[in-house]
Amino acid sequence: MDEQPAVTRNRSIDMTSLKGLAHPLRVRILDALSTYGPNTSSGLAERFGESSGSMSYHLRQLEKHGFVREDASRGSSRERWWERVPGGIEVDSVYPPRSAERAASDLVQREWQVTRDALFNDFLTQGADQLEPRWFEASTIDTMNLRLTSRQLGDLVAELQAVADRYIQRYRNQQEPGTRPVQLQLNAFPVMDAEEIPEGYPS
């Protein structure tokens, strides 16, 4: 019987850690390590057009707050390799308007969305021309519209997340021939310019 990998739980970060992450470059560094895997300070500096000194500083801050760690299996006496600490990150959005906590939360989530949009747009504009047909055909872009209660929406998200978690645990850090980075973007949310049907409304 194959040994199953341990489930990595999402981390709900506190305010101190949130402020430590709330810098556009740090969010991009964390995303790059998540998407492309471990890298060195100089490699990340080249990717983002930053100096090695600046990159080393931001990596140390991310390490201090528990977002990244040294990959000792790859390191050498000359250069350290860095990897993201496994597990998802939950950022609470329920902070008072105009508070420092809300500003930090908004910045982090906005930068995450910028990165997601960039990767998605790259796929839309370049995928059909640059990818082998088998990769393009295996991918999907779907939009589905439903009418749900908040509880039903929560149940749906939990089921979709459970499916995603099984694949994450099964294939995390896979380095087999034929693999490449793949991003699954899962969004499920109420449409903002529509209203909730009130109690007593005829069905």
Explain what this protein looks like in three dimensions.
- This protein has 203 residues and is mainly α.
- The protein has 2 domains: 11-141, Arc Repressor Mutant, subunit A, CATH 1.10.10; 142-190, no CATH class.
- The chain is 49% helix and 6% strand.
- The protein contains 7 helices and 5 strands.
- The protein has helices at residues 15-21, 24-36, 41-48, 52-64, 100-130, 133-138, 150-171, and strands at 11-12, 39-40, 68-70, 81-84, 89-90.
- The longest helix is centred in the middle third of the chain and has 31 residues, at 100-130.
Itemize the secondary structure elements and their pairings.
Blueprint: E1 11-12, H1 15-21, H2 24-36, E2 39-40, H3 41-48, H4 52-64, E3 68-70, E4 81-84, E5 89-90, H5 100-130, H6 133-138, H7 150-171
Parallel strand pairs: 1-5
Antiparallel strand pairs: 2-4, 3-4
Helix pairs in contact: 1-5, 2-5, 3-4
